[in-house]
Structures are given as C-alpha cells and as structure tokens.
Amino acid sequence: MRALLPVHGTPEQVAVTIAQEQRGRVARRQLLQAGVAGSTISYLVKRGILHTVHAGVYIVGPALDVAWGRETDAVLAIGRGSLLSHAFATALWGFTPPPDPNDPVDVTVPGNRTGRRAGIRAHHSGTLDPRDMTIRLRLPVTSPARALLDFADDHSPRAIERALDEALGARIVSRTKVADLLARSGAGRRGTKLLAKLIATRRPSSRTANKPEERLRQMLLDAGLPVPECNYPLFGYEADYYWPEARVVLELDSYQWHSTRSAWVRDRRKDDVFRAHDLHVIRVIWEDVTQQPLALIACVVQALTERTRRSAA
C-alpha cells in the first residue's frame, strides 16, 4: 500500500511500525520485504500478535474496530496497485453515505489482475489513468471523478444525481474533470450517458453567474441598490450575493441545487456559519424573483438599511 522505508527492530516491532501507517494492519508481503522470515510471521500469528483478516493480511495487536479498517484490509488483500473504488470511494470522498457494512468492499485494480477474496468485490480496469489514482486518508482510492463514474454503473439515476450535486457543491470535483474522464474512459459504461446529461445541466465551475443569478443581479441593479459582490468566497463557502458594508448575504435557492437532503443540510450549515460571523442572511427562491419581485426588493432594502444604520451607530 505504500513504499516501505527501511524498518529496524524485532519482527514484532517491524510489524507495529508498518501497521502504524495502515490503521493497525500489515500485509505478509510487506513483512517479507522488511526482512521478516515467513516462519517468523507464522510464529507471530500463532502467538496472537498478528490476527489474520484475509490470507496474507493481519491486524497487529488487539483487533479494534477502526474507521476505514475493513477498507484498508481489502486494499491490502488485493495487493499492489489496488484502489478503493465505487460506492466505497464516493463515501471516502464524502459525497455519498457509507455503504451497508455487509456489502463487499469495492476495489479496482489496473489491468486484468483482480484476485478473489471473501468480503471483497474486485474489479479490473484497462482504462485507469494516473489522473484516476490518488490517496485520501492514507488509503489508495480512485479520484472523485472516477469514483462518480464507477458509482454510476450500479446505482439509480436519483442516487447518481444526488452524488454529483453533492460533489460539485462541495467543490470536490468539477464539471470539466468529469467531462474529461467521460471522454477518455466512459465508452461503454452504463452511467456515461446519464452523467454526461447531468453535468451538461449543472452550473459551470467558473465564477460566471448562471442565468437565474444574472437575472436577479440585474433586478437588484435596476432597483437602484448598491452593486453586490457575486459568488463571493466567505468563511469557507461562497455567497451568491454579498454587500460587505452592510454585511448582508442573499442566497438564491433553485430546485436543481437545493432539492436534496444533503443540499438542505449544506445550506443550513452555511447559514449557521454566516450568522455566527454576524452576517444577515436572506434566502429567496426563483419564484420570488419571477412572481414577487417587489416584495423581494423591499426585503433586501430593509436589510441593507437596518444593517448599514447599525454599522454606523
């Protein structure tokens, strides 16, 4: 799983040192590479210092339940070059919930070598590119874009859409990177057409406002209001519109970006952070812009007036 530096000490110390970087796990091949004899490894297993979880993969010391331990076991078991993938990769990146604990762990290997182990679903791939391979939380894993493509092969359209929106909203992946991946590795994949369709309707990663945002901005300017900052980075988030002098934020919610529970949670957290920094947050929906523009403008004017007066006091 990693390039081993020279490890010194007793065989037990060698095992502990390697396992410290791997959630308490070590592979037989790593011990052999570090100079521990096969007979010694068998002796450590017999003494209970090494606990076998897969053939050639051991937990060092007490078999404690640690986060991503089962996934680490799987990557070590399949061997060099293997990557956590599919739903387990999207969960590791944080834009889908963790899979069911009873599900086999998905691991992808470049080329045709897959191997078979209980509790592991191994995939071989001839299209993996160095851009598709990375490390997260000390685990080899497919890139966010590749994880989405793999996820799209065996999940419902709704789950795929939710995962894509979560990844884009958290800026874990961009439309450009997904499009690039689809162009070079998406041929024949089950989820390719749906992913391509979805990213074509999502807001670009650039700082250019989309049409609803641009229309709202123009409406604010036509009403004679001060020019707001648009898509402004603020305390780890991005405010749709921001008036720095008045410390007022205006957020435009659309069904496309705010209809999922994960998006709702993200918006609530965003509002909490803004308010904790003494910002006044106004949330509007597209229907407010098209059906109640005067009421919307009045709300903004009131907020700007009150906050400006407060700042001057």
Through-space gap between termini: 61 Å
What oligomerization state is this entry in? Answer: single chain
Mean residue pLDDT: 86
Please summarize the sheet with the most strands: 4 strands, mixed
Give the domain tally: 3
- CA radius of gyration is 25 Å
The overall strand count is: 12
Q: Which strand order does the major sheet show?
A: 9-10-11-12
Tally of DSSP helical segments: 14
Point out poorly predicted stretches: 205-209, 255-259
The portion of residues forming beta strands comes to 15-25%
Query: Which class of secondary structure composition applies to the elements?
Result: alpha+beta
Overall, the morphology is elongated
The residue fraction in helices comes out at 40-55%
Q: What sequence of helices (H) and strands (E) makes up the elements?
A: HEHHEEHEHEEEEHHHHHEEEHHEHH
Characterise this structure.
This protein has 313 residues and is α+β, with helices and mostly antiparallel strands. The protein folds into 3 domains: 1-64, Orthogonal Bundle (Arc Repressor Mutant, subunit A), CATH 1.10.10; 67-200, no CATH class; 211-312, 3-Layer(aba) Sandwich (Endonuclease, Chain A). It contains 14 helices and 12 strands. It has helices at residues 11-19, 28-33, 38-47, 69-78, 86-93, 144-152, 157-169, 175-185, 192-200, 211-222, 255-258, 261-276, 286-291, 293-312, and strands spanning 25-27, 50-54, 57-60, 83-84, 105-110, 120-125, 133-136, 139-142, 229-234, 237-243, 248-253, 280-285. Strands 9-10-11-12 form a 4-stranded mixed beta sheet, with helices on both faces. A hairpin with a 2-residue loop joins β9 and β10 (237-243). α7 (157-169) crosses α9. The termini are far apart. Mean pLDDT is 86; it is low at 205-209 and 255-259.
